[in-house]
Structure formats: C-alpha cells, structure tokens
Write the structure tokens for this entry.
Amino acid sequence: MSQVFLSRTPLACALSASLLSLALLAMPVAAQAAAPGVIAMSLDQQTALGVRLAVVAAATAAQIDLPARVTVPPSQQAVVSAPAAGLLTKLLVNPGDMVKSGQPLAELSSPQIAQLQRERSEAQSRYDLAQRQLQRDTTLVNEGIAPSARLDTARAQSREAQAMLAERNLALKLASGGAALNGVAVLRAPISGVITEATALPGQRVDMAAPLFRIAQQGQLWLEIDASPQQAAMLQPGAEVTVPALQARGVVQAKATALNAGQSVLIRVRVTQPGNLQAGGVVQARLSLPAQAGVWRVPPAAVTQINAQDAVLVSDQAGFRIVPVTVAGRLNDAVMVSGPLKAGDKVAATGVVAIKAAAGEVAP
C-alpha cells in the first residue's frame, strides 16, 4: 500500500487554509433560519466569522462635528457696482481696509457720465432761464403792463424746468457723477465696514452694473452648515452650537426646507459669542443634539440592508434575530435608529456581511 506524504510547502499551507475557510463558511448551511426572521448560528460559527457584539443604548444628548462657513448676514453687506460702462482710473482702497460711509473707493471715466453731466447742465440752464422769465412776467403783471395769463404760463414753464432739473440731478447722483463736465464718477462707500472683495484693477474696463467692491459691516456673524437630511431632522431652532478651537458660540436660527445642489440641508446659526471668528473662514462647528424618546444608539456597522430595508441583527440563543429599524440620524461614531429594540440588546457590530453571506438574507 502506497503512503501519502503531506507537503509542508507554502502552497500546501495556503491550500489548507483556504479549505478551512470554505469549511467554516459551509457550516451555517445546516443552521438555516429556525423561524422567520431568525438566522440560526452557534457561538463557534460566530467566532469563526469574526462576529463581535455591541450593546444597544438609549439615545442621549449627543454632539456632532461638521464644517461651517463664517458669513456676514446679507442685511449687513453692500455691493458697489459700476454705475456705467467705462475705464477704472483710480483704485483708492484694498481688500481688508476699513472704510466709512461716503468714503471714495474708486474713480471711473465714462462717456455715459459725461452725457449725464451735459444733460444736467442743459436742464440747469433752462431752469435759470425760466426763473428769470418768471421774475420779469411777475413784474409786468404787477405793473398792469401784461395780462395775468402770461404769468400763469411763466409759472408753468418754471415748474416744468424745475422738474427736469431734479430728474437730471437724480440721474447724475445715481451714476455717482459730479456737476463738472469731466465724465468722471466717484464711487463711494454706502456703509461703514471692511472691504471684503475688490474685483477690479486700475486701467480695467468694466461694464455697467459690474460688481467692484463688497463691504461688510462689523457686528453680527452667521455660521452656515451643510448637514445630511438625517442630521438636520435631529436639529431644531435654538440648539446650541460651539466652535471650541476659536471660543465661539451660537444657536441654530433656521434650517432650509429643501435640499441644496449637494443633496444636503443648509443650517444657519446665529453667532452669540464671536470669539476669534473671522468672516469668510471655514471652521469645525460642534452641534448639540437633544435626546429623543424611542431612539436607540448603535454602531454604524451594525445597520445593514436586508430585503431593501434597514435592519440590525440582534443576538439571541438561536443566533441572530433580524429587527427592522428606521435611521433617525447619523453621528460621527454612531447611528440613531428607532425600532423594536430595548436597552441591553446586543447587535452584531462586526462580521455582519459574513453572517449574511454565510446564512443568506432572511426576510423579517
């Protein structure tokens, strides 16, 4: 009888390990679901598959860290645009400069400004002429030389000239032009604050209404946070928000009712203690989530999909019981779920994929 010798080569050892793994995976075949919604599996089989259990705990107040943008409320910002198409000849401020209301920011040379100045000058001449005519006619009527109808006509012409002059003055004021016929507009700060943006350079041609400067008042700040729909559902106005790194605090003021382009929900936080926050910065904000009745805290890996439904695998004497759950929110290190669970239940936290692959998915 011939003898068979087992080789100790690395290839043979690898083959033996593979056969052992296949045997372990094959073990649950004899341990199919003992009842609907149950996966029968012994402790030895769980150990072979690397299953680890985690205890279900009631959801308590929690915290979550999310990136946040530091912004200035629109009510405290102003944009200075080009009043007409032209050439930017002077730039008098730079980003980061503090400015006062009415302070010159730049000078713009434009043919449109020159036209407005000419029209204003013509309106002024017509008004002056109408005023002199009104004075002469008033004298003639008072002396009985001219009829009163002539005075009525002079008064009407004076009012018309005055209205035209007011219109030309307003148009020139809106265009930031002066009364001199020089075609130059002086752009001034509408509010006091800091220059946060300056998009034009001296010598650059700009179109009408092109934004040139953005000014932000010093004062109220906001934090804008993009949260997932599950995270946003757990937040309510008034929830506390902190930025520990910059000693800043705030409260949730509002949250959007629709998803943005990134399929997230915009959360707006009103800063109550600015600390070292600076407008335009990106910081890490910590949001406080309140405790919720009937919500449980489980590890992220414990939640799986079985038959297109979220579920967890609860350990019992027979193996694992499939419990459908609804995800209420996702934190950095846990998932908040609601479902027929109780404190102290143990769920599979690792090896969930191996359990499903070895025993097959069983409908709850």
Summary: The first strand starts at residue 38 and ends at 40. The chain is about 25% helix and 35% strand. Residues 1-34 have pLDDT under 50 and may be disordered. Residues 226 and 261 are 11 Å apart (CA to CA).
